[in-house]
Amino acid sequence: MNIDTQSVDQAVTAMAEVLADYLHPEEVRLLKSQWQRYSTVSVKMMQQCVLDATRRYPELQAYKSDIRKGFWATLQAGSQQTVKADSHNSHNETVKASVPVSELVLAFYTVMEALRSQLSETESRNLFLTMHQTVSQERTFKGHSLNISQFLEGNRPSVPDNEHLLNNLMQLAYVCLCDVAGPVEADEMMFRAAEKAKQNYPKTLVEKLF
């Protein structure tokens, strides 16, 4: 999904469509008015929308994963429609359709975010900055633009949809985590992160990352 093609109104409308299945129209309207204050669309803004909804209405906690998936799917559909419209209306520009994010990449994001949630702010910063520095120097990742430090800002950096490279990134994360938290704690954190990912994605798919 290319969030650069999305307006705040489009993003808010997409979330409202998903929440309409869970909340009263007036409750959805209140959340929409709250989210309209954002000036630009970003992954952090969209994550905050999910957080706002589940904090205000705790009964949604059980459906948090479904809401997030529904939100991304709805926004993805809106993004593709925008791209098609732009392509139709433009004679001099070539607009490329955004490429959907695969489940493998989404599982990778889930694992990394689960690791971050288990660390203190200092530990998290040490982990991702060390990873970022190592990735920039590692021959395996040459030719790929990987800004791992974006995880520190609550964003999801662009990563290749490649099982081999994602597995290498995960192994690197484990090595760096051992330095930050120690081998025993690193093993436990990795296990918990993997279990978290398996709640949302097929077990065999998640295991490809490890």
Shape: elongated
Helix content: 55-70%
Low-pLDDT parts are 82-99
Mean pLDDT: 80
Distance between the termini: 26 Å
Given the helix and strand composition, which structural class is it?
mainly alpha
Helix and strand succession?
Answer: HHHHHHHHH
| Percent of residues in beta strands | under 5%
Helical stretch tally:
9
Number of DSSP E strands: 0
Largest beta-sheet characterization: none
Q: Using the CA coordinates, give the radius of gyration.
A: 19 Å
Could you explain how this protein is built, in words?
This protein is mostly helical and 210 residues long. 64% of the residues lie in helices and 0% in strands. Helix 1 runs antiparallel to helix 2 and helix 1 packs across helix 4. The protein starts with 7 loop residues before the first helix and ends with a helix.
Give a short summary of the structure:
By secondary structure, this protein is mostly helical.
